[in-house]
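User: Sequence in, structure out. Go.
Assistant: Echoing your sequence, followed by the structure tokens.
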Amino acid sequence: MTLFLLIFNLLIYSALNKLFKFNPKRNSSIKISIVVAAKNEANNIEFLINALVNQSYSIDNFEVIIVDDNSKDATFINAKSICSELKNFQAIKAENKIFKAKKGALDLGIKLAKNPYILITDADCEPEKEWINSFACGFENKNDFLFGIAPYVKANSVTNLISRFENLRANIIVFAFSKLGFSYSASARSFGFSKTAFNKIEGYKNTTSTLSGDDDLLLQEAIKFKLKIGMVTDNNSFVFSKTKNIFSDFVKQKARHTSTSFHYSFKSKLLLAIWHLLNLVSLFSISLFPFSNLFIMPFFIKLIIDTFVLNNFQNNFGYKINPILFMLLQLNYELNLIYFFLKGLNFSKRWD
């Protein structure tokens, strides 16, 4: 068991080392459409628009379409007011949607998009200035789908610390596995695809088994069609957003994400099951310590390896978490996996 865990982590470490090798900065000029589904984001939409206005990418080579999905606040009014002063921005209302919730709003925006490449982000996000250009370079490398790094902003709360660590831990696995040829997940906060590829997989048509999964399940469809999936890891291409302030809201968010994983391919679920099982068995091996001193070894080997990998790559994912906290946070993360799995089984299918 410990040997298999060591092999897995060696592969992860090697994959991330290759992934984050220096890539020379390039400039692109391909045409891109950015589509954002917004729901009750009146307090955030201005920050997103400002971040997009300040992109290094030429204003002549991208457009922004903000789709208000029946907000109960001033999201549409605020977005419409700001966009009216920007020639390449527009705000519309999500009317006559084919699909429910967020997917329906995104689908409307994608159909209105004039350009051959689409970028997706959320209304409460703030992309760094090289975000569009980095994705454009990725598309020029003939990638059909791309996903980038989307870290959470640091705040002074336990919920924020747990959320940031969970995001770091999950992304290390997502990006390493994808580099190894086993893509399975992506974040809608930093996600893109060619319109041709989107139409080839029939858009969101085959992702309606759950209201969530506008990112993960779309990627699963791309895998079925053997499309080329790439990653964006360039400097100044992160997409930052805030974490939930209340732990119960964080739990709800994670339950939604976990419920989406139930609809992954068998291959993806099997790989993740093996990985998490190895980690959980190593974690709980310490409970057998009274029977033999040997059972303490898998537990400490796991925590040492986790700390080494996390500390070596956390800067690459936009984090600076004190390594002293890693052991406690890692234990919490593994236990939360079980809790979120159980919560995901009963997740309420609703986009808040």
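User: And one key feature?
Assistant: Residues 282 and 298 are 5 Å apart (CA to CA).
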